[in-house]
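Field notebook, page 247. I keep forgetting to write these up properly, so this time I am using the form the group agreed on. The chain and the ligand, magnesium ion, are recorded exactly as supplied. Prediction of the bound pose follows.
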Amino acid sequence: MHAPDSVAGTDVRETGTPLVRCENAARTYGSGVGAVVAVHGLSCEVPPGARIAVVGPSGSGKSTLLHLMAGLDRPTAGRVSHPGLGDEDAVGLARHIGIVFQGPSLLPPLTAVENVALPMRIDGVAEDEAGSRARAALVSLGLEELAGRLPDELSAGQAQRVAVARVLARRPRLVLADEPTGQLDRETGRQVLSVLLGTADELSAAVLVTTHDPRVARELDVQWYMADGRLIQPATDPGAGRREVRP
Ligand SMILES: Nc1ncnc2c1ncn2[C@@H]1O[C@H](COP(=O)(O)OP(=O)(O)O)[C@@H](O)[C@H]1O
Ligand SMILES: [Mg+2]
């Protein structure tokens, strides 16, 4: 088991400014009688180096919370901020946050290595450097053989590992993974999760994984539970008190 307080050799949980802070953050879809409250005002913090599972059944608000944390969506009430990431705008944040989605996310016309290099190219990294970082990421995940393949020529598990390589190559400080193993069989899911957690370790990045699978959740250090858009952070977790937003 990963030692939670040994990230980068220091107790970053004690000293690190939270990468994400949600303060009474809520997200409602629609309005009037048809309004759906996907996330009720919830407060939480993700410190540097944290390994958090957000566990809950389908429809409990996990993806909505992850999108709010990623800056892909805005709260309809309350606040989501990124003090440990410099509180940048959405474009700036994108450089520090790596996202792994549940379903296929590779661009079909591009090879695996081109898919991995693309976000770096968008960030302005020179073509040569983006290509070599993309190849290095594929090599470190044991995927060098797949570099020239198109997404259609990959299995679901291989494609998901390429998506993890794409995150690794960009060196984010926070990795958000939305049910990354949700469409994979158990053994492939286990491999993808292991690669994802190894990647977060290598980057000293914090990682938050949503899942409805308790077996996946147990691979993370901390479990948060979601039900009906509400978040429960168990008080029995020794780190939970430190992560709570203080009034
Ligand atoms: N774009 C949307 N429009 C309307 N309702 C939505 C939308 N996205 C999510 N919801 C609703 O918000 C709730 C939480 O959804 P979601 O965050 O996707 O949950 P989970 O990821 O845990 O399955 C559900 O009731 C869902 O139907
Ligand atoms: Mg979801």
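OBSERVATIONS:
- The domain at 19-108+171-243 is CATH 3.40.50.300 (Rossmann fold).
- Residues 186-203 form the longest helix (18 residues).
FOLLOW-UP: compare against the apo run.
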